[in-house]
Structure formats: C-alpha cells, structure tokens
Amino acid sequence: MSTLPTTQGDETSATGSSERRIVVGYDGSPSGTAALARAAALAESGKATLDVVTAWHYPIAYGGYPITSNWSPHEDAKDTLRRGLLHQFGTVTPAWVTGHATEGQPARVLIEASDGAEMLVVGSRGHGGFAGLLLGSVSSACAEHAACPVLIMHEAPSGPTRRRSTEQRLEAALPR
Q: Is 60 among the domain residues?
C-alpha cells in the first residue's frame, strides 16, 4: 500500500522502476476524476506505474483581498489527492500508484512530469476559468507542450444520460 506525501515535494512509494509510466493530473474536478479513472485502467492493463499529480501554488490574493489565514494550499492539495485515491482505489492504494502534491503552476508541473512518461492524462476542464470553454488552459498547454502523448478526458456522464451522438458533438464543436 502506498502512503500519501506528508511534506512538500515528497512522493509516495512505488514498487520498483518500470519502463512504462503513465502520469495523470488530478484536481478533484469531474473531468479530473474521469482522467484518474481512465489513467488507472490504462496503467493496470498495460502493467505500467501510475503517477497521480496534484499541483498547487500559493496565491497572493483572492478576489482582491490578501490571504492572511492559516490556510495551507499544500495541505489542501494533499487532501484532494487523498480523496481522489480513496474514491478510485478504496482504502488500499495499489503499490504501482504514486501520489504527488507538488507546488507550481499546474501546466508547468504536468509538462515536467510528462518527461519520460508513456502518456499524460488530464481532464478537459478544471475548477477555474470560463464555464463555456470546452478545453481549459492547463489541458491545452499540456496537449501542446508535453513530452509524451496526451489523453484529454471529459467529465463522465451521470445518471441516465447517454453519450452525445457524433452529429451532436460536431454541431457543438463547429462554427455555424
């Protein structure tokens, strides 16, 4: 069982070194959760290790107000990572999974983590930005600059909703 990081820059343990490594960016968003699920399935079926990366940075201000509380973005990131791993794997995280709570801008952290990886998996949209965009700034930057192939996952449909047809996806994507 892997344990989660306890200090900045720490990594959880993973068994042995594998030539096959998949990296997934996880931020707790619905598309980030879909990315974690797909990356876990790919790593397990391909006998690869899985690096789950949650990036954080300390903002100087929020909404124009300085941040003066005891809030720790590193602890918040570790908690997000813990919840994601618990949701995906239950109480025992497989030994082939490594979790990282890393300080830095998410796109930069993930692009650096992609070096030497077989694949980088990210969600299409995180928590920030504009709701109407189909592709967020982090996933867009990763797709353009990662050192390996990038798989961008959309939020999994919930309830009785079925996937949109090809015609519906094209209509939504193409200008009129």
A: yes
Q: What is the Cα–Cα distance from 15 to 7, expressed in whole angstroms? A: 20
Q: pLDDT of 10-36, one tens digit each?
A: 443 343 444 799 999 999 999 999 999
Q: Assign residue 141 the CATH number of its domain.
A: 3.40.50.620
Q: How far apart are CA 132 and CA 51, in angstroms?
A: 30
The boundaries of the domain holding residue 133 are 21-173
In a domain, residue 15? The reply is no
Q: Whole-angstrom Cα distance, residue 7 to residue 165?
A: 46
Give the rounded distance of the alpha carbon of 20 from its chain centre.
18
157-173 confidence digits (pLDDT tens) = 665 555 666 676 667 66
3-state SS, residue 31: helix
What's the number of domains the chain is made of? 1
